Amino acid sequence: MTSQDQQVSTIAQQREALAVVVNAVLKSGDLAEKIATICEQSRFRQYAPARTSWDVEGVEETVHQFLKHGDPTKAEKRLINTADTSEALHDLTRSVAATPIYQEIVTLTCDQIRARRPDFANEHLENRVAGAILDHAIDAIRRDDPSRPFDTLRGNQLNLIYVPSHDNRRQVSATRTSWWGSASDATTIKPDEAFVSFMKLANISKEAWLAALAQEGFDIDEVGELGDGETSERQAAWAKVNWTVSGEPLIDPAKAVHAVDLCPYGFTPFVAFAMDAYKVVNRKWSHAMTVSGGILGLHDFVYGSGNPIRFEGQCNIPARAANVFLHDRLKHNLSRVHGFTSQAFRSKVKDSNVEVALIEAQIAAEAHLAKLDLATLAAEAALAYRSEIPELVDIIEATGLDPDAINDALLTGVKDRAKHLAGGGFEPGVLRLIEAEVRKQSARVSAMDSAAKLAVLAEFHGPDEALATVKALAGYYDGPSI
Prior knowledge:
Order of helices and strands: HHHHHHHEHHHHEHEEEEEHEHHHHHHH
């Protein structure tokens, strides 16, 4: 070891020994209280809300990663690794060194060391004690620092977009509406999943939509350029589709009709809104949210067309992190295509007590219940059970069986089938959907003739059980007398 190395080693050992002595001295009552006073007076926050453009970019990337993976722990680790807090630490060092109480502690500590350990008393003592006390004070302040990495997100409003049925495994373009013919308009748009999602976001019922079409002069039954085949397909699709909404429409149905008519390439349904970045990563994404104010989507993110509408009312959305993404990262976003400013996204966002899983179960149940089409079932069953149906009709006619008895038996079958289609999810919301479907089908049952009713009954229960049911209801017995 060279003499220079020995000198460096000796200085290091002296500093370590001095640090031990300083720590011992600072534990004494008066000095410990003075250190505590420095900590109490400090307003140090290592993680403060981002303000520079560089830091704001980090905020956006952190939220993007969170929405992509849904993992706050991973997002926080990324933030720790990328956030630049060196300036905050430098400011802390300067502010502590400039306080009068710090200088007082240095002087008192040096006095006590000179009294206890004269061997440390030299021309370097005060500088070394000052450095040791500064480290001690900063460590104490940092231990008391209440800030956390996600605090850098606070106060940064981000423009978000919620798209129903979207997730990170497919492109947002996959959620676009479809249409008949060469271009989409108010009459050629298909009532598919995307369109129904838009209607639900807008809180417009099927009846209100069709009434608005007629009021605005659109004829959904007009053949036009579609031809008879596609016109018939359109009529069948509209007859079959249905959806449920409650409350007032988010926008005027007539305004929605004209907005849809101005989307020749279809559109993706969405709600765009502003939300604090801190709340994005800290909210319960298992629960729905209520967005008051924002932009209601009709926008084609592929070609950059559409006709989005600003709304002021409340929109309830069952958003998960997977179907929410950052608006500003989209190539054909609303600001670039339509000129929307940040004011257009202003919103008030509140968490709901309703769990997203329950809403999703209701949506799935509603989609399955739409398949409960008695007219189609009757037509198909009449062919399948054409040899059994006449016998059932004969029994009804021979015994004068009350039609209401058959209706009740058939509605029991409707209820069972509805529960089956709903997937066995019997949460209160799903049960209400099932009961509503049974009530809706009740009127259809009463309007059917006996053969159609019996055909559906045979479809639900099988021909043998249907025959037994009818005989039991009629008090009919064809066996030997006892």
